[in-house]
Specification:
about 475 residues; 2 helices; eight-stranded antiparallel beta sheet; Jelly Rolls; globular; mainly beta; about 5% helix; 2 domains; single chain
Length: about 475
């Protein structure tokens, strides 16, 4: 019998599941893997079994699941009564999202199962990196736990079509992960697909303390390399201050502040969230942020000997790089625009990595990912159809007064682009800088309605690295 591959999202979910085990630890539950090619029935279409696809369990998967109302059924053996999360490993090569609904015999399923979004993964699974593990989650991105009885149960999944011409999507497996599962080590980080959080949010953010805290602090994640070289601005008013709270080291290294800055519940990254009604940094900005700002630091071992905001000269001939692996998961309703990476000088935005949703006022799920240079005077679209919930990487290289940007490892139109504004006193920024405000008078001038203060932008940062010249 072939051994299923356990990818990063699956193994991370196992760790979360075991963080709050049931009382009976003497008999731990095992995950249930349902291979897609082991389907027992179908109607409305004809699946094709594909072999030799890298990154799949046993190198076998199913394809030709293209048409609306094509229904596929499987049987699963549930080992014992308990609560289970559901993970789907899929590949989607269209430029639009496609949808499935899932029914499990004998289970009362919440609305999250009635329209599961499969966002594009970059291909139909001919490469290992095109497969993604999607944990069926609620509107806040938390895994939905389903109560199942022991025994044989049927699973029935229906193609609901897609936002484009068809609902094409390939499937490798369905996994049922119990509340406490046996842990299997993940693959190497470069091979780990991410848990998709593509479902657009439908509820305002919860207040502090309403959401279960993750077991890690952001400073505990090695993926956020050199977090000690940053300070954090939060969209809340600082104690005794008129403006937004700033958190510096060493407090930042131990900070977890729900719902603005915390490790996501799968342990795959750090969530940065900023709301439209959040506190601002000064009168010079209309927008709130949950954002890291680069500091000039020096350490003697673990002892901090310098920690100050002092920038660098982009034209000094030193090559500097910032690499971010991230997933944009939410944007505001009325003005669906967020910034998720910057180079800033003392006054202006040298570079902004910006997402602009295509459906203002109607809950955008896709839009254009842009690089804006020279105080937004030069605009380059690096992905015209980015879908919320899609994980991507960006590497920004600043050298000798010019900037280049790699998107998912590929060269973009931003190649040796000249910086035509002040190059001195520059610094990096990463996280969430929401571009809408309930107090934003310019929003009216640009044709956007006033934003509800509770609306927010959110990004999950899976890795953040700076070169260190």
């Amino acid at each position: 019998m072939k051994k299923p591959i356990l990818s990063g999202a699956l193994s991370a979910l196992l760790l979360v599941a075991c963080a709050t085990p049931p009382a009976d630890r003497a008999a731990p539950l095992s995950r249930v893997i349902v291979e897609a090619e082991s389907f027992t029935a179908q109607s409305g279409g004809q699946l094709v079994r594909r072999t030799g696809r890298p990154g799949t369990s046993g190198n076998v998967s199913i394809s030709a699941w293209d048409h609306r109302d094509h229904v596929v059924e499987w049987q699963a053996e549930v080992p014992r009564d308990g609560k289970y999360a559901v993970v789907l490993r899929y590949a989607g090569g269209r430029s639009w999202a496609v949808y499935r609904d899932l029914q499990i015999e004998g289970a009362q399923l919440p609305p999250a199962f009635s329209r599961i979004a499969w966002t594009p993964t970059g291909g139909f699974g001919t490469e290992a990196g095109q497969w993604r593990d999607l944990v069926v989650s609620d509107a806040q991105g938390r895994p939905v736990w389903v109560t199942l009885k022991a025994g044989s149960v049927s699973l029935r999944m229906r193609n609901l079509g897609g936002d484009g011409a068809d609902g094409s999507g390939n499937l490798d497996l369905i996994a049922l992960i119990p509340e406490c599962a046996e842990f299997t080590p993940p693959l190497a980080p470069a091979q780990q697909p991410v848990m998709s959080r593509a479902a657009p949010k439908t509820q305002p953010p919860q207040a502090d303390g309403q959401r279960a805290h993750a077991t890690l602090n952001p400073g505990d994640l090695a993926a956020l390399e050199h977090l000690r070289d940053w300070k954090l601005t939060l969209p809340v008013q600082g104690a005794g201050k008129a403006w937004a709270e700033e958190v510096q080291q060493p407090a930042l290294g131990k900070l977890s502040r729900q719902p603005w800055f915390f490790v996501d519940e799968a342990g795959t990254g750090v969530v940065f969230r900023a709301n439209a009604g959040g506190a601002r940094t000064s009168n010079n900005t209309r927008f709130a942020r949950s954002e890291l700002l680069q500091m000039d630091t020096a350490y003697d071992g673990d002892r901090q000997i310098r920690y100050e905001r002092r920038g660098w000269d982009l034209a000094d001939g030193v090559a500097r790089r910032m690499f971010i692996d991230q997933t944009i998961t939410a944007v505001p309703l009325q003005k669906p625009q967020v910034v998720v990476g910057q180079i800033h000088n003392a006054r202006d935005d040298v570079l902004m990595l910006k997402f602009e949703g295509d459906s203002p006022g109607r809950r955008s799920v896709r839009g254009a990912l842009q690089v804006r240079l020279n105080n937004a005077k030069d605009v380059y679209v690096i992905d015209p159809a980015y879908v919320l919930g899609t994980r991507f990487t960006v590497e920004i290289i600043a050298h000798a007064g010019r900037i280049s940007v790699l998107y998912n490892g590929q060269v973009t139109a931003v190649k040796e682009a000249p910086v035509r504004i002040e190059t001195r006193d520059c610094y990096w920024k990463a996280g969430m800088y929401v571009q809408s405000s309930s107090r934003n008078t310019s929003a009216y001038n640009n044709g956007f309605a006033d934003e509800d203060p509770a609306e927010y932008g959110e990004v999950v940062v899976h890795a953040l690295r700076l070169s260190r010249p």
